[in-house]
Design brief:
The complex is a heterodimer of chains A (700) and B (148). With 700 residues, chain A is of the alpha+beta class. Among the domains of chain A are: 2-46, no CATH class; 340-444, Immunoglobulin-like; 480-698, 2-Layer Sandwich (Heat Shock Protein 90). Chain A contains eight helices and 50 strands. Chain A is rod-shaped. Chain B is globular. Chain B starts with a strand and ends with a helix. Classes of the chains: A alpha+beta (700), B alpha/beta (148). The A-B interface holds A 503-504, 506-508, 510-515, 518-519, 566-567, 569, 607-610, 644, 646, 648-649 and B 8-12, 14-15, 18-19, 22, 56, 58-61, 63-64, 82-83, 85, 89, 100-103.
């Protein structure tokens, strides 16, 4: 790989790279990363061709200290007492200290052209760079933490337990101990020496060395490193960030470093501050306030601790290598961010085609979005932010190296997912095409469902009230009906009573009694009267009730027939036969229901017959729960009886008529099906031989 | 006076005849019939002055008696019945009285008295009619006499 310059149509050789590899192709990507493919050793990437890394491959030593000399020269101190001198990145000479000492700190005094070498033990040396002579000065500068030149003859030296000022540091040094405390850093600015001890930052007048502690918010400071620009001392503290001391006041600097970033070293180069951190190297211009950074994606993929500022270069030293950074503008690349795309959309954990518009039912509301922005090491250097319109007002950060966003159970609505990606070093973010999700409302939240529910409720309420009204109406009607029925029953009862109280029967009976009295037949009169009154009493009693037992009914009938028999001058044979199975005391029948038919049989059938009057009454069970009562006579028959009726005679068969109405009532209102059939009987010569009335009624 | 009692109930006949014998001295002779047919026979044969007639009887009602005497009834009818539903009809056939069972003896006496009165009036009317008839006859005779 050869690099040539091309000017004035002439190629000029500049350098050779990858001298040991067989390079097959070179590509430069959008972020000016150089991609080199090799024949047999994979792919190399160089993010910045200006940054070079120099390996200390040929020695076993580790770099433990470094210092800049004049121009572009610098010295590296190792852990085995070697001093490596470089000029323009080329090792020019190596000096070996007596013994394999760990070099802890180097200080170059340009005025005397001498190099102070501080060993991490009670030893130190001075190297005269004019003749490379090494002078052992015992522990004068041993275990040094910092050096600061105060003036031509005065040097501040801070070690692990003292801050010391030397007058004539190289010849006949005169020692003045400023403070017994571990020193961390020091700087001289505006005739004042600033020294940071582990228990505070002190400011000394360089003439009198009067001490003054600099407090921040009335507290002592722990300062890691100090540097100065024109009139300003920059103070990198352990806990309070980067502060600056100007015009005798300490205040926070306006440099906006990434948060929680510890400053390792800070060095000034004229108006420019170089700040090393674990996340790379920063350059800050104190006038323009511009902050630039170099990090992993510039190829500086390590934490930066010590570095040197040379005339044209920055040297970043590592234990086994150092980086060479040119101070030119080409050092800082303008980073861009590759196009960001949503690459996968998962809905309820199922992959779907990526689209810009989704219409989803309410239950497909878990959405995963995966996205990516290409580029070299974009995982670590591209940050993503998203915003979902209607939920977020501000952009939400996504942690670095995360390439997905998950929304669990989005409620119904319209969401627009916006995504932007930005390279950490880029100024501009790029935006992905927004994706819109419309999640439908579940059916129970839709208007038509609400109206349906309301309509149903109203309907139900209406139906309920209508039902209630109907029920009330029905109840009212039923009550009216009941009253009417009661009235009717009462009327019928009265009518029934009247029908039982057949005047002919009563008056004829009374007439008979009168006859007994007149005939002086006391006993007969009395017994007849008793029977008669008993019957009347029964009638009065039973007509008060709607139903009486069959036994009561039959007893009344017996008594009635007994009295009638007297009237018929004993020319009446009657028989009442009762089925044994009948529980006459339990069966209820409509009160005085049979009697009118018996009376009919007597009045219309048997009365017109002169002799052989026979009446048969039978009560029995037919079928299940059905009572049949038969009233049979051998009278003249209905036909004959009809003929005997006087044409102008108002026939009032009100007894049986009332009974028929009762039957009707029982049937319709009380659901008791009573049937009455009247049959004409004929003898073998087809001559009328009586009437048979059959009453059937269900037994409760 | 002669009386006939027509009633299907033996006990009723018995009672009425007892009451008549006890309380009505003017009734000298009492005969009984148990239905209308035999009663009419008896009336025709014995020509009574008063007939005690029940209305409700087997086969034929007492009110049917007119059918048997289409012309003049020359006896007085007193209805004796248990119930007064036929009263109007009874008076249409110019009954002397209408007695309700059981029979009040005073009412019975009054009814007999009414009958006697009616018979007397009837007799007087008869006599007057006879006189009128004879007078007519007389005037006819007179005219016949004058001509010759």
């Amino acid at each position: 790989m050869f690099v040539y310059g091309f000017e004035n149509e002439i190629f000029t050789f500049k350098e050779q790279l990858f001298s040991t590899e067989s390079i097959t192709d070179v590509q430069v990507d959008f972020n000016k990363n150089y991609w080199f493919t090799t024949l047999d050793n994979g792919v190399f990437v160089s993010p910045n061709l200006n940054i070079r890394r120099v390996e200390l491959s040929n020695i076993d030593s580790k770099i433990t200290a470094s210092v800049a000399l004049q121009n572009n020269q610098f010295v590296l101190g190792t852990n085995d007492g070697k001093l490596l001198f470089y000029n323009h990145n080329q090792l020019t000479k190596t000096l070996q200290l007596p013994g394999k000492k760990i070099i802890g700190k180097l200080f170059f005094d340009a005025q005397s052209d001498k190099l102070i070498v501080s060993i991490n033990a009670s030893e130190s040396f001075v190297v005269n760079l004019k003749n490379d002579k090494i002078l052992d000065i015992n522990n004068r500068f041993s275990v040094a933490k910092t050096f600061s030149k105060i003036d031509d003859n005065t040097l501040f030296y801070g070690n692990y337990r003292q801050g010391i000022v030397y007058k004539n540091p190289f010849n006949n040094p005169k020692q003045q101990i400023l403070k017994e405390s571990r020193v961390k850093a020091s700087v001289v600015s505006n005739n004042h020496l600033f020294v940071s001890y582990i228990d505070g930052l002190y400011k000394y007048n360089t003439q009198t060395f009067n001490a003054e502690e600099i407090l921040f918010n009335s507290k002592s400071l722990l300062v890691n490193t100090l540097t100065k620009t024109n009139g300003t001392v920059w103070v990198a503290t352990q806990h309070n960030g980067l502060l600056k001391y100007e015009n005798n006041t300490l205040k926070p600097s306006e440099i906006k470093l990434p948060e929680n970033l510890q400053i390792n070293t800070i060095n000034a180069d004229g108006l420019v501050l170089w700040i090393s951190t674990d996340a790379g190297l920063f350059q800050y211009h104190t006038k323009s306030h511009q902050l630039k950074s170099l990090s992993g994606q510039d190829g500086l993929n390590t934490a930066v601790n010590d570095f040197l500022i040379l005339q044209n270069q920055i040297i970043v030293s590592l234990p086994k290598a150092f980086y060479v950074l040119p101070k030119s503008d080409a050092l800082f690349k303008a980073f861009k961010t590759a196009k960001v795309r949503v690459e996968a959309v998962k809905i309820n954990d199922r992959d779907t085609l990526v689209a810009t518009n989704y219409k989803l039912p309410y239950n497909l509301n878990k959405i995963d979005l995966s996205f990516n922005s290409n580029g070299f090491q974009s995982n670590q250097h591209v940050s993503y932010q998203y915003r979902v319109k209607q939920i977020d007002t501000s952009w939400q950060n996504i942690p670095l190296n995360t390439h997905f966003v998950t929304f669990n159970s989005l409620s119904s609505g319209t969401y627009t997912f916006e995504l932007k990606a930005q390279n950490l070093s880029a100024k501009q973010a790029v935006f992905a095409t927004p994706i819109t999700f419309v999640i439908a409302k579940p059916f129970w939240e839709t208007y038509w469902f609400y109206s349906l529910v309301i309509a149903t409720i109203i309907g139900l309420v209406w139906l309920y009230f209508r039902w209630r009204l109907q029920q009330k109406e029905a109840q009212r009607i039923a009550e009216v009906d009941k009253i009417l029925i009661d009235k009717k029953i009462t009327n019928l009862r009265l009518e029934n009573l009247r029908s039982q109280m057949n005047p002919h029967f009563i008056f004829n009976a009374l007439n008979s009694i009168q006859d007994y009295i007149i005939s002086n037949e006391k006993e007969l009169a009395s017994s007849y009267l008793v029977k008669f009154s008993r019957l009347i009493r029964m009638y009065l009693d039973y007509s008060q009730q709607n139903e009486i037992t069959l036994e009561e009914e039959l007893n009344a009938l017996k008594l009635y027939l007994e009295l009638e028999k007297v009237r018929f001058e004993d020319e009446l044979e009657y028989e009442i036969s009762i089925d044994n199975q009948l529980k006459t005391k339990q069966i209820k029948v409509p009160s005085l229901f049979i009697q009118p038919y018996v009376e009919n049989a007597l009045k219309h059938g048997l009365l017109h017959k002169l002799n052989d009057r026979k009446l048969h009454i039978e009560a029995k069970i037919i079928q299940q729960n059905k009572l049949e009562i038969t009233v049979e006579d051998n009278g003249i028959g209905r036909e004959q009886s009809e003929k005997l009726k006087r044409p102008n005679q108002q026939h009032k068969p009100f007894a049986t008529k009332a009974n028929l109405e009762r039957v009707h009532l029982y049937k319709n209102k009380l659901k008791r099906d009573i049937t009455i059939t009247t049959n004409d009987l004929y003898d073998e010569n087809d001559v009328a031989a009586g009437t048979k009335v059959v009453i059937t009624m269900p037994i409760h | 006076m002669k009386a006939i009692i027509i009633d299907d109930e033996k006990r009723a006949r018995h009672l009425l005849s007892n009451l008549l014998t006890e309380h009505c001295a003017s009734i000298t002779n009492i005969e009984e019939a148990q239905d209308l047919t035999s009663g009419v026979e008896l009336i025709k044969s014995s020509k009574p002055d008063v007939v005690f007639l029940d209305i409700e009887m087997p086969n034929q009602s007492g009110l049917d008696i007119l059918e048997y005497f289409p012309n003049q009834i020359d006896f007085k009818i007193i209805f004796v019945t248990a119930y007064n539903q036929y009263a109007i009809e009874a008076f249409k056939i110019s009954a002397v009285d209408y007695l309700l069972k059981p029979v009040d003896t005073n009412e019975l006496k009054e009814a007999i008295a009414k009958a006697e009165e009616a018979i007397k009036t009837n007799n007087l009317n008869d006599q007057l009619n006879k006189l009128r008839d004879s007078l007519k006859q007389l005037s006819i005779d007179k005219i016949a006499l004058e001509i010759p």
